[in-house]
Amino acid sequence: MKKYSFKRYAGVTMALFGAAALSLLLFFALFRIDAIHKAFSHICKTLMPFIIGGVLAYVICPICNFFDNIYNKVFKFIKNEKKKKSLSNNLSVFTGLLIAILFIYFMIIVIIPNLVNSVVRLIQIIPDNVNKVIDFVQKFLNENETGLVTSFLDMHRELLPVFQPV
Predict the structure, then answer these.
(1) CA–CA dist 118, 125 (Å, integer)
(2) How far is CA 141 from CA 2, 39, 68, 134, in A?
(3) This prediction's pTM
């Protein structure tokens, strides 16, 4: 007769318990998906300034490092290292922010007019396309009127016994 150890039974028991617990958690998460979505949305809205700040710092950091090296070379005549480092750091951050702001400004100048033109063109095109769709549907229904009615009646006759009370 084989002897099974406690460790084996404990492992299987824990695995089954974990699977059942995760299944219950998934069920309740799906059951309360609206509340979870609302909470996650609130958390994202709260953290958005920090996320934007982190992304901007990540993007601007290489620019600041590049200008910091340049300003350190330019200000090599300053003997006080602390003052030279402070001045080069401040100027590099200012230059990096200025470049980032100018980049965003020029992107807005390029994107906004194209966006406005696209929306205006979309507003001009939509009525014609809606009329085309309406004409197509009316033509399709007029051409296939008898076929659609007979197929609907056939489907109704087939499904009627299924929904009759027993």
Answers:
(1) 10
(2) 74, 47, 72, 11
(3) 0.49
